[in-house]
Amino acid sequence: MANALVVWDEALLAYDMGEHPMNPVRLELTMALARDLGVLDRPGVRVCRAEPAGDELLTLVHRPDYLHAVRAAPLDPFFSGWGLGTTDNPIFEGMHAATAGVVGATVTAAEAVWRGEARRAVNLAGGLHHAMPSRASGFCVYNDVAVAIARLLALGAERVAYVDVDVHHGDGVQAVFWDDPRVLTVSLHESPLTLFPGTGFPDETGGPGAAGTAVNVALPAGTSDDGWHRAFQAVVPSVLRAFEPQVLVTQCGADGHRLDPLADLRLSVDGQRATYLELRALADELCDGRWVATGGGGYALVEAVPRAWTHLLAAVTGDALDPATLTPPSWRALAARRRPGADIPLRMTDDVRLSGERWKPGTEPDAVDKTIMATRRAVFPLHGLDPQDARD
């Protein structure tokens, strides 16, 4: 068994919407940085390609008529509908094949972990968490993470936990499994009062047959590392331990970074690195290490995403990278060629140290603590947990 599987193929760069924030250069630069730092050459790490998902897989989540629309859209200059042809989701040539490739890569990662072929697996091109069964949304055409979770259920998984740390609410995944008690969806995101998609309030807790299986932490704009981690520790470990998942699937969007142009959280690469290590520790504790990680959002294409996701790759494949590590000159040269004029980082850190401060019950001094308490009050009793109990 491989310790870790990295699903990667340059064909995944074909998910390219042109002049658009979702620029695949972020993936190219991430993989180059990880390769130059030796992360992909560690013992027990296997890099593989995946076949695109076929209709049988895609229809675990998506409607057949929507698949037809995605195939047809690039062939019709007057096409409209299904959430396609918008500013967020422009139609591009080869759209079906490119997106099916992303889905196939995430499903390959999930299958390898479930079957014991790898302890952990990652597809950085994945994390298209906004796509709905019959509609594109938020840069996402097909929902690879939802399809992968549905595939895990089809293979016999009885309890799958999904944790989404993208700055945007993981609305598509939540919607797909809203009524399914076998899937716990947990999303930490910027408040829907200030950011797309306008969902993910604390009182969204799951359908009638699955109460408590949707957990939402809606953080106020401007939240920085310490507030983020205080919220993460106050909510995520407790609900995961109560749910007792067999496998952990995560969406690790890097768009909570303070330099991201599309959102207003204030995280650092150091804080994101700490989150990935916390997710790994929870997978080790609760799922015998079974962890399927994906990328997601992230639009500071040079300044943040490659470093954040290289730290994610390090967490998946073995030892964490020292934040003080220098970015290799070869990588800096590539970044300068791909994005002339960009501010190219010299080190794998933003020089931020987390305080480690934990949430305490009975005190709500700021908006983050009020957010924490709103989520705990909404969902903890549904898991038999006391909202006022600070023990994990």
Automatic annotation (TrEMBL):
InterPro entries: AcuC, HDACs, His_deacetylse_dom, His_deacetylse_dom_sf, Ureohydrolase_dom_sf. Transmembrane segments: none annotated. Residues 20-315 form the Histone deacetylase domain. Keywords: Acetoin catabolism. Pathway: Ketone degradation; acetoin degradation. GO terms for biological process: acetoin catabolic process; epigenetic regulation of gene expression. Signal peptide: none annotated. GO terms for molecular function: histone deacetylase activity. Belongs to the histone deacetylase family. This is Acetoin utilization protein AcuC. The gene is acuC.
